[in-house]
Write a structure and sequence with these properties.
Blueprint: E1 16-17, E2 23-24, H1 47-58, E3 64-65, E4 70-71, E5 75-76, E6 81-82, E7 86-87, E8 92-93, E9 97-98, E10 103-104, E11 108-109, E12 114-115, E13 119-120, E14 125-126, E15 131-132, E16 137-138, E17 142-143, E18 148-149, E19 153-155, E20 160-161, E21 165-166, E22 171-172, E23 174-176, E24 181-182, E25 186-187, E26 192-193, E27 197-200, E28 203-204, E29 208-209, E30 214-215, E31 219-222, E32 236-237, E33 242-243, E34 249-252, E35 259-260, E36 270-272
Parallel strand pairs: 3-7, 4-8, 5-9, 6-10, 7-11, 8-12, 9-13, 10-14, 11-15, 12-16, 13-17, 14-18, 15-19, 16-20, 17-21, 19-23, 20-24, 21-25, 22-26, 23-27, 24-28, 25-29, 26-30, 27-31, 29-32, 30-33, 31-34, 32-35, 34-36
Antiparallel strand pairs: 1-2
This protein binds zinc ion (ZN).
Length: 281
């Protein structure tokens, strides 16, 4: 950053925030940085001052805008009720982030957020759209077990799960996991998809467990190019999963050579370009 000349010192933080990323932070810059304490990536930044800043935002009566905030330590917001539209767009969680049993009552956006350690949204309730985790990065485990996603689309498009991803017994209305990437085991057993479930261009690199999962409407598992959705080395289980509208279920260009489909009525399911055995290259 270098030494600022008198006169061109950026006294206000210009990090983009707001619903469309169109407004600027405007807070005073932190020490000799060009951004404020909330957006400073200094992991040793003044703990108390930062805590007071972001807790003031939580109490906001308008938008709860924590876009691109950098949380240097673990945060625990279990059972918190977010009564306003809540933005964690591009936020960085350096430590564990826990939102267990939290309630997002007016929409939430975690798009492009980066969770460097475990993220816990177990039993959280997302009451209204939008519920966005578009391009979010979960570098540790991601626990959405028992989470309830309300009306609207639970949008995990292009999200990347490096650790185990747990969505056991989660309840979705519409779910978009297109282009999402599950790099470790994923657990969607006993989840309920009450709207459409989109797994187009999704990648499961390890075991995928859909045991006892309920799909009420359209379901799409669609690969593209070399991506056949499911790994050729790990087990995929659809044991006892239930497709309420089998004529709207499609498996296109996918690998199902290690998939268990026992107990599934697949008579009307559309299987096109499915690989039932691993390629011997
Ligand atoms: Zn700022």
């Amino acid at each position: 950053m270098g030494t600022h000349q008198e006169g061109d010192v950026p006294v206000r933080c210009r990090v983009r925030m707001g619903k469309d990323g169109t407004s600027e932070c405007g807070r005073a810059v932190y020490r000799d940085e060009e951004v404020c304490i909330c957006h400073s990536r200094d992991l040793k930044k003044d703990e108390v001052a930062f805590y007071n800043m972001w807790h003031a935002v939580l109490a906001s009566t308008d938008l709860i805008d924590l876009s691109r905030f950098v949380f240097p330590d673990h945060i625990e917001l279990d059972r918190t009720k977010f009564g306003r539209h809540t933005l964690f767009v591009g936020a960085m969680f350096v430590g564990e982030a826990s939102f267990r049993n939290a309630t997002f009552q007016a929409g939430s956006d975690f798009s492009e957020a980066e969770f460097r350690k475990d993220a816990c949204f177990a039993d959280a309730a997302f009451s209204n759209q939008p519920m966005r985790f578009i391009s979010a990065r979960f570098r540790g485990g991601a626990d959405f077990g028992g989470a309830r996603f309300g009306l609207g689309t639970a949008n995990f498009e292009d999200a990347r799960f490096s650790g185990a991803a747990n969505f056991q017994s989660a309840v979705f209305d519409t779910a978009d996991f297109s282009k999402a990437r599950f790099e470790s085991d994923s657990y969607l057993s006993h989840a309920r998809f009450l709207g459409s479930a989109d797994f187009a261009s999704t990648t499961f690199l390890s075991a995928a467990d859909f045991t006892g999962t309920y799909f009420e409407r359209q379901v799409r598992f669609v690969g593209d190019g070399n991506n056949l959705v499911f790994a050729s080395t790990a087990t995929t289980s659809f044991l006892s999963s239930y497709f309420q509208a089998p004529q709207q279920v499609s498996f296109h260009h996918v690998f199902l050579g290690r998939a268990f489909l026992r107990g599934v009525d697949v008579r009307q399911v559309d299987f096109t370009d499915v690989e039932w055995a691993a390629r011997s290259s």
